[in-house]
Protein 1
Amino acid sequence: MTSVKPYFLIIAIAGLFLSFRSEAGVTEKMPCLIPVPQDLKMGEGCFRFSQSTNIRGSRSYPVLYLQEKLNASGLATDPSGQAEEIVFSISPKNGLPEEGYRLEIGEKRIMIESSDNAGAFYAVQTLLQLMPPRIYSGGADIEEWTVPCLEINDYPRFSYRGMMLDVSRTFYDASYIKKHIEWLAYHKINRFHWHLADDNGWRIEIRKHPELTEKGAWRGPDEVIEPSFGSGNKRYGGYYTQKEIREIVRLAAERNIEIIPEIDLPGHSRAIAAVFPEILCPVEGGASVQGETKNVWCVSREENYRLIEDIIKEIASMFPSEYIHLGGDEVALASWKECPSCQKLMKECGYTDENQLLFHFVRRVKGIVEKYGKKLAGWDEIMEDSSIGKDATVYAWRSVGTAEKSVRSGYRTVMQVAEYCYVDMKQSPLERGHNWAGIVTLEKLYSFDPLDKFNFTDEEKENVAGIQGGFWSELGNRPYRFVEYQNYPRTAAIAEIGWSSPESRDYPDFYRRLVTSHYDRMYHQGIAFRLPYPDVKYFEKENAVKVRLPYPSAVVRYTVDGSEPDSDSPVCMSAIVTDSPRKFRFATFFNNDLKSISVGASNIKLFDTLAVCSDVITNMGEHTRFPLSNLKDGNAATYFRSDRKAVPGDYIEYRFGTPLSCSEIIVETGIPDITLYGVTDGYVEYSYNGIDYVKGDTFVDGVAVIRPDQQVKSVRINITGKSDGPVLAVQDLKIVF
Ligand code: ACM
Ligand code: ZN
């Protein structure tokens, strides 16, 4: 067991190293603020809140907000109090930068100065971060509420610090959106980009066209939109009424958050097209990159612009934002290639390729947006044509290259580059999430700089509005509160990139502040954030499983039987001696409520081998790039994709020339490592003689396990309900001997 110690020692030393790594040598005393302020000087002593802390200042929202927060925690405030006081001075005369503030904490007085409400609000956020984390959850039993004496002069690096949320693929109701906005405000994020309409649901009430939400907000077996993305064979959906939208806009304004609404046009429009099929070109074109058909507006149909105007008119009245985002991304141009009237329009306008129809469309909708006093924003596809006009804002998403091009072309650009800023991407290879833009670890995201990467001229730098993270919600259905898991703590990294000076950017220090204080804050803010899992390895020579903690104070619990560790599982205190490590599962626990995903030893496979099939058969057609033969190639990364949705009666059968002797067969469906497009409703069967079948498990989250007690000759997947993906994906069988 002595061999354990070095492994744990490494952690302890690393932890120690992190907490003392400040050049000034005072890091360990500094408050762990996120985002880190521009300038902070520690003083001596502390300010102590009492039951009669006097708050002085106008009845502006930052003042009322602080009062509410203190009162919710049982701290009375007394305007006539004589003891200690918090004084707000909010006036342009203070000459502080926009959204900037000065926070001076003395033993008897906290002074907050700013030129605008936003600055005072952010001073309050900083003050809350200096208080015990229970300030966020209304903790009433803490006797001593103190904050250290200090002086902070702070202001944001970028005026645009945003997060985008897709509410079409997964619907988050109005009360959830309010929480989401509170969480953004805690991080000094000042823009919420609300992706309100896409292929899989229309989420905003338009009074002139109630069908949009009566029908277009719902998917299900009897709805105009088919089930997708895990919503299953049941009615699923929802939308925001205009009343709810106005409430949310009002709340956001009192959190210094501007909401930029997005209706994605002219692609990504299957939800509205399912309600109003006449908006499509009369001849069906090809599918979008997401495999969606019937999702592109016809450019040449004049009535379409009247419908768009009806929608924009109401949206403009609901949102005070200067901008309306109208998408423009990923349009399947094939629809326009097949459409006689779009082709006629091309000829009339002298266009030589269908992309010009996209710009034609964008120019038209830009005119409508401007008619209602707004400016146009769109994804970076819209910048490819200078006719759009440089007063449009471009959201650069496709690559670092398109971001650079947008800025150099003179567009006001929001940096939401997918490979850094898409928080729907996986956070590690083991976790659920997309990976088409790569794995976006916290450290990778934190390394992104909207300016330094590019060598922009001073003039070009002016075009960089700021940074935004984005969450597309295709995988939002599970596990529970996955949206928070994906957004936090990555939103904290976005916040620091957007706010703090690039000179202060230091990942080990950010991670130290995160694990030392910010986890506690997020927990009390009510965020089910991602916790890193432990690094576990099996050392064969010593027959021992050893655990490296993800941060010094982490608690790791484990099970030995393959089950999920829970708060009653033993805490891992040292190496575990065993010669059968496969069934061990480990997870980091923040407390009884919140834990990481569970992992086994990273150098031990969870199965012994892939099954070698002599044959695989199905009644479904195969996708040309993902043929059935992929299930026989002994490569776990390749898989079969059907050429259509799976429906009841569909099957896939694996046959073995040599019968399989094993204890378990793991039948996994969905794209490997993404678990998208798996079996929605179905079960497995297996046969010992190739003729008679034994019914096995039904699929749960696309996975079923067979535990045979004889040699198996064949395994069959039977579909009992429509798949909720546009295709079915099925993987190689995995065998445990
Ligand atoms: C996008 O990810 N299609 C903007
Ligand atoms: Zn057309």
Protein 2
Amino acid sequence: MANHDYDLFVIGAGSAGVRAARIAAQLGARVGIAEDRFFGGTCVNIGCVPKKLFVYASHFAEEFEDAAGFGWTVGERSFDWPTLVANKSAEIERLNGVYERILKNAGVTIHQARATVAGPNAVRVGGKAVTAEHILVATGGKPFVPEIRGREHAAISDDMFYLEKFPQRIVVVGGGYIAVEFAGIMRGLGAEVTQLYRGPHFLRGFDDDLRHFLCDEMRKKGIEIRFNVTVECIEKRSKDFCAELDDGTEIAADLILYATGRVPNTEGLGLKEAGVELDDNAAIVVDKEFGSSVPSIRAVGDVIDRVQLTPVALGEGMWLARHLFGAAPAEPFDYDNIPSAVFSQPALGTVGLTEAAARSRHGAVDVYVSEFTPLKHTLSGNEERTLMKLVVDKASDRVVGAHMAGPDAGEIIQGLAIAMKMGATKAQFDATIGIHPTAAEEFVTMREPVVREGDEAAE
Ligand code: NDP
């Protein structure tokens, strides 16, 4: 190892790269890291963190309304977008500093420059050549916008965090996490929002009850959602934009946001030249130990396009650092029961299998569903409802899916994810005492499974 400049050289100081670099350095490795944009990557700078701050901002409009039922009179309200953007940016700058300090304190050598792979053990960074026993590519991903006419006029999620002017009319294209989150944020902040999705129903891959429930709730909040529709082109006009749709209609907007997925950042990194295999989506192909087709070059996080979630990237980075420099060989990284939340309005939280997936994997399942008006809204008059759902494998009684739409869904599902990771059964959920009065207690008080068409025949 000592023949090289570094034991590990990490390209990209996002969630995965920073975690891998820090843990490796703490385990005694000589680590270098290169970053040419900002410390903390997408999540900290133009993703999860500022997005969640925007979600908080957008909730106030409803909360001011809700207050009246509790006797409060809220005075004149106004919203100032530049203040939100500036305050958010100041906090993100602070976090950049935190990430940089984490690396420095761990003894990682930082190169604030673009790096490219120059060979199995060689990297070019800031005009210099360095060598490393292991190279880790953790360059993340970037938004994908389909090839349509006028594509250059589309905004991407990166842009949303620095818009100078608040768009009063916005079209959101896509039906995934980012699209539903930004539809909710912009609506809450006062915009007219139209969301367009190419398929019959958005949030493909999520539990169907949750998808339908969220769509109804978003529509109740005034978001126009249109399914089975595609944008053919975007025209820039003198004062706004116009999206022409395949059903012959047009929509005028101040901003057209494309949230149509993210693709791995592998371009121009010298990977192909170094013999690193990429898949059709340009993701680095890796084995169970995150090794690429060139054994000394590894990759973790969004650039391998397995599960595009920050906590997964962190986990992969940590796993790899321990695998390379720790004492004990690690178990393979476990992708089972990964919980996630969509910060839509209401929020979604989910872990385990959807009802459909559980039926196809386990055959006979029991499904428990509870839909209700949260206690708070009995006085606020807010019409938002909450949905909770458990999917239980009949044969083993294990809870194989937990899904929720409602306030704090992510906070609640995180705890259930621990129980499910431990293999909790429905009987153990039932034996757990609820916390009253909370929404979360519903998860331990659902007693009667719903009867689905064909259930009896299956028994
Ligand atoms: P997603 O993969 O979640 O959704 C992409 C959406 O765009 C889907 O509805 C997809 O439709 C649609 N789409 C794809 N290609 C086209 C096209 N050519 N024309 C029209 N529509 C298209 O991606 P996002 O961009 O929303 O987010 C990227 C990733 O970031 C997510 O997968 C998620 O893992 C992560 N993320 C996580 C968050 C969280 O944890 N809260 C928040 C934000 C992002 P179809 O379903 O038909 O393919």
